[in-house]
Amino acid sequence: MDDYDFFKHPILNNPYEEPTRHHDLDESGQPRNTAPIESRRKCADVTPVPKARRGRGADQQQDMLVEKLGNLDPTPIINEIRQHVTSWRNLPTSDQWGVTPATAKLLRHWREHKFASIRPFFCQREAVETVIWLTEVARTQKRYAHIWDHIKGGNEEANPELMRIAMKMATGAGKTTVMAMLMAWQTVNAVRSKSSRTYTDSFLIITPGITICDRLRVLQPNDPDSYYKTRELLPMDLLPDMGQAKIVITNYHAFQRREKTKLSKGTRGAIEGRREEKIDTLETEGKMLRRAVGDLMGKRGIMVINDEAHHCYRRREDSTDEDDLKGDDKKTAQENNKAAHLWISGIEAVKRKLGVRGVYDLSATPFFLSGSGYPEGTLFPWTVSDFSLMDAIECGIVKLPRVPVLDNMPTVDGKPVYRNLWEHIGKKLPKKGVGKSGGYNPADLNKITPLITAMESMYSHYVKVNDQWEAAGHEVPPVFIVVCNNTSTSRLIHDWIAGYEVPETDEAPATVVPGQLKMFSNYDEHRNRHPKPNTLIIDSAQFESGEGAIDKTFKDAMAPEIEQFRKEVGEREGAEAAKKISDEQLLREVMNTVGEKGKLGGSIRCVISVSMLTEGWDANTVTHILGVRAFGTQLLCEQVVGRGLRRKSYELNEHGLFDVEYADIMGIPFDFTAKPTIALPSAPKPVTRVRAVKDREKLAISFPRVDGYRTELPGQRITAKFTDDSVYPLTPERVGPTRTRMSGVVGQQETFSPDNHRDEFKRPSSIAYRIAKHLLMTKFPKEGQALNMNLFPQVKRIVLEWLDGGYLQCAGTEPHMATWPGIIDEVAEKIYMACQPENAGEASVSVILNAFNPRGDTRFVNFTTSKTCFATDPRKCHVSHVVEDSTWEGELARVAEDHPRVLAYVKNQGLGFEIPYRYGPETHKYIPDFIVRVNDGHGPDDPLNIIMEVKGLRDEKAVQKAETMKKLWVPGVNNHGGYGRWAFTEFRGVFEMEQEFAKLIDGYVTQTEPA
User: Could you tell me if 352 and 46 are in contact, meaning their C-beta atoms sit under 8 angstroms apart?
Assistant: First the structure.
């Protein structure tokens, strides 16, 4: 089979039969581009994600210290159990199975029944069969004793009070169905064997959140959509038995003991006084259990089922790994440990009061988390079955995740920018809480061009997919989800994508800003709100704060769907509950029914979230996922990726296989196999104190603290002189990658590009018009004066001259991208600076000094650093050391000390010397490398202060800094006259530093001395 066939046919196995083929992957989980291997894949750590095509990360894993797992590693046991279960499954008659008659009937039904719709996948049957085999077969035979010894040993070490059995199943492989099958097996046997201590009809299902609780209501026998009936998981004659089951579905938060008496901190302190004994105002454990488990209080021998079970563990007591973590990683570990402790303590409380017969864990990632006391990524040792994401892909049960593998923007590590978008934009996004204070503006996102280009690229591909869906007759749209770092960022992105309303102020009336992505906008072209929203913003904080109100227009438009939801609630919970449906419930139902025709969420195209999409949200119409947050662990990556993996269609093709479906994913660094790792300790580095030396006071250098500039263009005639510095290279480094190859580990590849606005700017005059309008509005109006529209023809002529002169240089981009928000500000600055005559107009430039601290000085330098330092000559520098951020800077210091005309110099570090300059829409701070004071012929009492910059490579920011220095800062400070004479220069020939420096000084002396 050639490479083309390999990538064209990722699905190898029928989903309802045991896998018989698997793709040939190398040791790091990457395809060898060879024919499939004719056998089932063994249980192993394999991540079905291709590596980047460039960079060291494409060839080698990061070196990691792996703790010896010893008996904790369950992989060999899983493979052994799988072999035993396969042999047992293939026994020809039920008499040989060694199970109860009720179990045998269920097994035959699941294997042989002609299901009307979706039937259990092989992986679902195998997970349940493994538990049945362990319980009814292996437990009674000595030859399998070592398997149970392993399971018991893992539990004894990690949670000695409980007996847990974990099933690992890929996200989208149907854990809910497995829960239903397990409860059906237990209940039917319990009803038929009342005295048995092996089976039970009482179940406590615990989830990590309310979203999953909503989804799992199909496990209740009386639910209208009960899986036992709708999925035909029980023969008709056994359905009455299932009706005897008691099933409580809750989330682990219910185990938190609540305050029975609320006391303020002051009141509590006053009552307790000096007593050592504290007042206990918490409810008792018994009362907590009555509230948490409800109808199960009268039962004995409960079976606990943990959904997303990786949240449930007991932290190893003697561990200090949490202390080794820093920042967000430590905070996340502390939060995880707190939640895990509450969860497992709650189960232990249930065991003490009611008795727990066993615990079934289900998770796609049953790993210990960072800070748990175990190596991060260690598989729970009581795991007995494994159907991995790679297995699910090869059976077609889930969508194939496609991620960036190559783009047209070079990076330091060679990896595609959109593979880990956060690394490139994280510091530019708001911190938590900024949105609450109103300190944000959706237009600010335009300054983060890689994010804008990523959204535009994903959206352009979404439009193509949407067209394909409509042509194929799909009645609901594909769904695009964005997962953000906090509520401030999610609100910004929502408003940018979907539009927002600007309230009325004293200066301006209320207005609407439409969304930037048309299909996702919640407003039409006339700025009227759509009755049914296209974009939904959702997060935990919104629910918890009670801010889940829904717009009245939406309620009116969705009246039939809301009424249908009321009927469903009435059938499940009674008429009274249906009358009391809150906006919060409606909002949850919108999210839970995204992609379902005729339901509240059926019209949603885009979902923007903070934390609620990490697990438990299972829309099957998701086609695109964008991560705009940090992903500290591969566990979190897999959880978020999993939200897009549920298939849309379950129809087999003519080959008896599912057709491949794709989920395209950007911004989620799902890169390597999640192996158990622990952090390496690091020793502290030695530090150097850098300070102003009191004995060198005569070498002190002072400088002005400039906050801004004032310039006045002469007359009404605008002209421009374009130079090499007027060139604007429009490259992917400016806008982000414009060609990104998306690929799965197998399957067809796709190239993403931001094509959405290309047709709007086909002609150069359209581009010139947009830039000229922006220039006129942002650069030429004088303070306090109205916009002078008479200048527009001149400004447009200059822009056309700039375009026709080839000063816009596109490489890997297209000219229309010069009109993009953020980019257009930088282009406008380029053209505007060409309208500023260098030196000739010095009299028109003045500086605005800092009102409170106009003068800076070397006397206040005092800091420590672990970087390499160069001890300065006490005859030439007021400061003790030069910090060598590069060897070039150390060389410049040496050259400056050796030149006879240098009176003093200082490296600008810890000095506070900053130059304001415009780059795009914002004012930035430029920190030059050195100030060198020289005698240029005016004598030591009237020295020339030269600001020196050492540049090896000169990027666009460097050009803008130099333009600002030459045309604004230096003329303005020299016009001020209160800080001496100043000049600016750049060293680009860094390898001929000494010769270049001498030539520079000689040039200034020649300009000063008479001819």
Answer: no
